[in-house]
Amino acid sequence: MRNIDLSGKKALVTGGSQGIGSEICRELASCGADVFINYNSNKEKAEKLAKEVIEKFGVKAWVGGANVAHAKEVEELFLSMDKKMGGIDILVNNAGTESISHVLDLEEDEWDRVLNVNLKGPFLCSQQAGRRMEKNGGGVIINISSIHDTVPRKGLIHYCSAKAGLKMFSKCLSLELADKNIRVVSVAPGAIETEMNRKEIAEFGVEKFEKWIPQGRIGNVSEVAQSVAFLASDLASYINGADLYIDGAYMNHTIPYDPRPPRK
Cys-Cys crosslink for 121: which of 48, 63, 68, 114, Cβ 3.0 to 4.6 Å? Predict the structure, then answer.
């Protein structure tokens, strides 16, 4: 069995200081990649993570602050990355945000904020990364989406719309960059437990998810991160323009049908 080998690769993970993003940084580093950890507000967490992966996996790591929704900040982030890391082979567009609001109460500014981070951000970062990858002979762009790029949900019309846009963005991007030897894939997690949502999930009721998700449990961040590492590697060299759903079949079981016919 071949192991995932990302030795010598240079990766940028947006929103990499916590949650799924931080685990992606760890997984890529464990496979040998040097990582540039983007954060928006929590520099301390990013620096702590960088120190962790350097000491544990013997790779290089840097941190850089930027709100990916702003073109100037993204440009400065990549210029900083050029100086520190000297190139990019893997971009993981992980930075995201959401809020819950009824559509009739949703403010325009909040619609813009959620769309800009979740959709405009990947566009800005992919454009910067793509220009560099084109010069360097290729690379991989992985967009972290959600099962809600397909499954609608009340109270999240702005988030679902952004993720649906990200899904099509990934497909269009794969067509435009294929001849540059740049692959583009979308990874769409379902219910995943993180440090940030663990308490919320517990209060909501873990047993509800266990009932709703056919596989009978909530996913964990390592399951998403391992899939990202595989897609970033040469083992996935012919996977391009695809969407990978990591959800325990959750999105295929959104209606609680009667359990019939019974299993014999």
Answer: 68
